[in-house]
Structures are given as C-alpha cells and as structure tokens.
Amino acid sequence: MPTERISIYPEPYAASGNIGDGGLRKLLGAPSLNMLQMVIREAVQNSCDAAKLGTGPEILIRIRTLTESQKKVLKDTVFSELPVNIDSRAGILNFLNSSVPKVLEICDFQTVGLGGPTRADWVPQGTKVTDFIDFMRNFGSSHDTHNRGGTYGFGKVSLYQASKCQTVLVDTCTTNQSKHVRRLMGCHLGLQYEVANNLDQVQRFTGRHWWGNKNTDAFVDPVEGTIATTLSLQVGFPKRDKLQTGTSIMILDPFIENSTDIMAGIIQESLLWNFWPRLTSDTPSSKKINFHIEVDGCQFTLPAPEEFPPLDLFSIAIKNIRSNSKDLIPINAQKAAKKLGTLSLIKGMRGARTSMHLGESSIIPFASAYIAVMRPVELVVKYIEGAFLPDERLEWAGVFIADEQVESAFAKAEPPAHDDWQPKIIDDATQKSYVTIALRRIKEEAMQFSSPLSTIDKSGVNGKSLAAAAGAIGNILSRIDGQGGGSRSSGGTGSRKKFYGNSATPPIFIKLESNNSKIFAIFETQIRLISTSKPMKLRAFAHLAADGSAFTEESLITTQPKISAIQHKNFISITSKNNELDIGTLEGTYEIRVQIPKGYATTLKVELSEVTS
C-alpha cells in the first residue's frame, strides 16, 4: 500500500469570482429523467463520445459493497483528509464508517480515457486534447468534435447529485503527449462555505474539493503512475493494462434501492430505452455498445431490442432509415429548400412486455405511440408522443434522425441534460427555424399516421367517427377471434408451433381509410402453406357486427359490407377486386380491403381452399 497519503484541495473563490455550488447544481436545469437514469444516460453518453475511432465502447455498470480492506484504503489513504465544512465532512464520514458501504461504478473500455493536461490554467501550446480538465476541472466546456452526443458537459453534475455525499473517485488509463499514463483523483461537490482568519476577514470557498498529489503551490494534481495503478486495484476498480485505455467512475454512497432485482431492472430499462439504437442487430460496429451489468455480484444481461417490445418496432424503423427504405418520410424546410432529417414510422401488433420487476415504476410504455428523435450520432434525445391507435392490440413507433448538414442546429437546441430540443435557446435565427419546423412536421406526421382522418377531409368524412368505428371494430374482433396483444414475432429463429396443414390466421384489423366519401376497413391475414401444397384460393367474408355477432339477415342486404380488394402485401400484382384470390403456393401477408357502411362496424372471416379446375 502506498505510504504517502493523498492530499485534499478545497477550491477558494478567485478574486475575479467563481461559479459556486448553487450555480453548478442549477446547470442541469430540470431533466426529465430521474437521477439514476440521468447518471446512466450522461455517463454512457460520455463513454460513447470517448470511444476510439471506428470502435464501439465496452461499458460495465456495477453496484457493489466495498470489502473491509477496500474501505480501509479509502478511509486511510484516499480520503484521509476531509473537508472542514461540517456538511461535506459528515456526508463522507457517514459513508466511510458505514457497515455496508455501497458504490455505483460506470467503467468504459475501448475509449480514449481522460487525457491531456491536468490543470485548467496553464496548458502547453498546441494542446488539442483537454479531456481531463474538461471532466475533472471545468464545467460548461463544449465539445469541438463534430457529431458527438454531449455538447455542454454540464450533465456530469448528475454524477455528484447521485451520491449522498456528492463525491466520486475517478480512475483513468489514457495518454498525454503520446505517452501512456494512469491517473486517479477524487472530487467532491459540496456547499460553499467560509473560513475566518485572525484579521477579522473570512476566506470564501466554492465547496468543490479534489484529492490528489499536492504540488508546490498547494494545488493538487491526480495521483499518477504506479501509485495510481496500485490504489485503483486496492479499492476494487477493474484491472487494466496500459493498452486498455478508458475511465472508471466510482460514485460513493449512491441513492439506490435495496432490491437487487429492482436495481438491475432500473439499469436495464435505462440502457434499453435510451441506447437501443446502439444495440440493434444492424447497428454498425463503430457505434455498437457492449454492456455488462453487475449488481451485488449477480450478472444481468440485456435483451436484444428486437425482442423487447415496443423496441422491436423502433428497431425496424431505424433499420429502414439505415437501409434507405422506400417508405421513409423526408422532413424538409420548404422555403429554405433544406432537408432537416428523415422519419420512419412503423405500425404493428402490441407485443407482450418483458418484466424488469419495476411494476408501475417502469419507464417502458404499456403501448407505444412515440417517435424517438436523435441526431446522426444515434443517441435518443427524447420521445415525441402521438395519438394511440383505437385498436388496443396495435401500437406504432417512429424514428427521426436529423440530417448531417443541419446537425449543429439540433445540437445547439439541446439543454444541458441532452433530453430535449428547445429552439428558443438557439441564437441563430436560421438554425432556430430548422429545429422549429422539424418538430412541427414530426408532430404532424405522427398525428396523420396514428389518426389518418383526424379532421373532416375534402370528402366530408369526420375523422372522429372513423376513430369510433375503428375502436368498435377492434372491440368486436377481440370478442370474436379472441386475439389480444400477444408477443410479436421479431423475425428471429426462435421456436415455432408446429402446424400440420395450410392455414390462414384470423384477420387482424389494421386501420380505416376514406376515399371519395367511402370508408374502408383494412385487415391482414397470414398465410402459411405446407411444402407439398397444391395451388390455393383465399376467400374473405365480411358481415356487419353488433355485440360481437354477425348480421346475415336478408333485410340488411342494402347495408352489408363489401370486399373491395385482396392483395399480397409484398406483391401488389397478386390482387383481386372481389372476395376471392388465387394465391397459388405463395405464403405471406395478405391485405383485405372492406368497404363498410357509415355508422357500422364489420367482422371478417377468411378461408383457404384448393383451386379446382
């Protein structure tokens, strides 16, 4: 164990002034996430920003209880000197004297670490890397690197706010002037205070403290070299050799739940909801994140977004953008003839949710009607809510990615917490208009997609009546075919139920459409055929419905619904304009359009039969 104790340095107010504790705590604004989610989001985003070029980061998120020997190193060596301020001192002592000293660690690998100079006042000429002083010293330093997730760096305040004693310990393996270096430093964000002297004066302090090696002017630099490596291992940080660059942050005495499963669930949901674009099967390797989660010695894995509704729909939406699908919606500023971004919208069955033991505290919505918006860096900024579909068995999701050419406008619209786009905080009028127009157009497309006829259209059809009719159809179908919102296939190779013949699934109601004053209900059915199937014919039968029963009386013939078309969803040439279609041996999804009388709901049945000569 190193014999030389680490020294403390309390930050005094400079003659020119400083930003105090109150200002720093207000820098975050009012983030929309709870504190632990905010910490995870901020730390992971920082790790993504620090990833080596062309490589996605590996990130460990761990909650553990320090051993007695680890606690002793912290108490006797790292934090042997404590703040004179009573509140700051008491908080740290409570942790060091605890019988169950908990810590939250966020450790990244395959990142560049906190390199560059260690002092904010003097730096060598030509210095370009200032990661250490930006993270450990300064607040409010912007990132000059194009297309990074963080722009202001204020969110690191959340790391201190997540600690009951507002204290963190940082271990980083990095480079400085092309040489490998290991650094370890503690930092505390306390309340400002004053210390009186014998001259009837008081010296004022900001409340910030650092622990490190004291130099000639009483300032402290990080502990470096062999001592830093030894200390990092003695307090339980992950082992690194000099080539395993990256940063480990230990949050002392975090605000956490006692339940292992609940804490794991909070971490899992936070990672999935905020970073799913970096976890999908088609995420480029340069952006993909490899997460490891450990709580009280137990390992937890993350499900793939494609298998975690509603992220399965979001995954399809972003895949469409990445592959430049034909169904994308361009979001443009018409007057400026400027492309602002690309929108992809997807509708599907509402999949069963995966329990993370959080109950009503879960951040995963029961039903999705949201658009995830992000910059090209593909980190979710926020979700814009649209209208929920009238059929509760269905949900929809969307993704908007800002265009590279206007990325800087959306970056400037983000508050310190990086969880919103606020045009009002942009000074440049043109960039402000870009973000304003994009947000308006996204909301318009969301409303149109979820309620295609939400207003009276040119044909005079009232969208509210359509929504009511759609809801009625959905309710009736749920009583007739008994299908609820079960799990949705994600296209994987998981187990399937055996089937012993040709089959057509009960029709699923998709949406209502209006055309020339006529109302159409759109249904879909899945056709599966055995390998030796003969050519088949698909027939559809529509009836008016009430209370879950079909009307078939001849007296109602004038108001009966009519099959207007049946067609294969992927092969529009395979279509029929009546109630039957020769499908041959072609499996897949078939769409059925039913013209329905105003004010009525309809049911639909389908059947397969062999084509006879």
Description:
The chain has twelve helices and 27 strands. It is α+β, with helices and mostly antiparallel strands and 613 residues long. The chain has three domains: 7-117 and 130-300, Histidine kinase-like ATPase, C-terminal domain (Heat Shock Protein 90), CATH 3.30.565; 309-352 and 366-450, no CATH class; 503-610, no CATH class. A hairpin with a 4-residue loop joins strand 13 and strand 14. The model is unreliable at 453-463, 476-500 and 546-557 (pLDDT under 50).
The unreliable regions are 453-463, 476-500, 546-557
CATH superfamily of the largest domain: Histidine kinase-like ATPase, C-terminal domain
Annotation field: number of helices: 12
CATH top level of the largest domain is Alpha Beta
The count of domains is 3
Radius of gyration, in angstroms, nearest whole number: 30 Å
**CATH level-two architecture of the largest domain:** 2-Layer Sandwich
CATH topology of the largest domain: Heat Shock Protein 90
Category from helices, strands and their pairing: alpha+beta
Strand content: 25-35%
